[in-house]
Amino acid sequence: MLLVTGGAGFIGANFILDWLAASDEAIVNLDKLTYAGNLENLRPLDGDARHVFVQGDIGDRTLVDALLQRYRPRAVINFAAESHVDRSIHGPAEFIQTNVVGTFNLLESVRAHWAGLPADAQAAFRFLHISTDEVYGSLGPTDPPFSETTAYAPNSPYSASKAASDHLVRAYHHTYGLPVLTTNCSNNYGPLQFPEKLIPLVIHNALAGKPLPIYGDGSNVRDWLYVGDHCSAIRRVLEAGRVGETYNIGGRNEKTNLEVVHTLCAILDELHPGSPVTPHASLIAFVKDRPGHDRRYAIDATKIERELGWTPGETFETGIRRTVAWYLANADWVNHVTSGEYRRWVSQNYADTSV
Ligand code: NAD
Ligand code: DAU
Q: What is the pTM of this model?
């Protein structure tokens, strides 16, 4: 079986649902259930013995040691993290605690467990660490996209904490021989994404007739990947990735934030003409920029494409339409996650605007 951490969050839940749709290999899911973790994401697995949920912290050595001892997973996939850049600006401590100290403790537990395995199980074991393209910093308009050899230059407390975790993972391979793999992916979007991130936030606000906050002038560029394609890349890396290697994952979908928001508004105009304010683009509001806002991210995915034969299944056009349709069909999910804590966050982050 697999031990997945952070499997009640956006990408982790999509990964578990996709995995169990295609395989009978069971998953133990260790998740702290922070504001971003939501068991409703895993409701289709209610009563399914292949999914074992454990609420807890990746930094809790006693708990993780016990889980490794009891379930003896053949791989650990580490999704657990504090993931939102704006939150890392308001409160970096939690990012250091989970992303750095938590990953360190998890690695220590896994190292001790792995060291005690018989030789064949040691050779087959994998620790797959899920990371981000933000560790590479910011690109200028004509710079080549990030490759696996681009120097790390993180700019936010979030990306610095992820970079630190990547370095620890690397060091555990080089020093102790732990069979690790690291993936660095670009911006994901799709079902189950918490509406603090740009795409679900814009859909949520547009449907409510609220302003669509665009930081700065909206010309920052992100490279978007449908979450299901990220999950298929992770499966492929787990299956065939070379131990000790890192793989960049991206869909070659560079868009400015303004392009993304206009696309969302156009789809909503078509699929949901009854919103309180239309056209939806009339809600666009330029607001104060994010401090230290990275200008451009772009991924060169040549290595995973060539070595592992992975390619994304969705274009941005098909993926974004699927995503809007999912949010329209799942108003209950959105209503449940936009209660107390969410409202507190929105009033803190957008205090200078009427968003
Ligand atoms: P998310 O915030 O939606 O989910 C994170 C999950 O981790 C939540 O379920 C939360 O409860 C859990 N968690 C947090 N702290 C924990 C702890 N100490 N112990 C156990 N569980 C804990 O994040 P996401 O967007 O699904 O991102 C998942 C991973 O992918 C992260 O490592 C992130 O850095 C990485 N990543 C995200 C993106 C993206 O666009 N969202 C892109 C590339 C990489
Ligand atoms: O690149 C991968 C990263 O993508 C992941 O590692 C992070 O976990 C994930 O959160 C995401 O980071 P970003 O900061 O790029 O995503 P976010 O959705 O917060 O913002 C996307 C862009 O939209 C960014 O340029 C900031 C801008 N933005 C965001 C919000 C929330 C706005 O203009 N307005 C907003 O209200």
A: 0.98
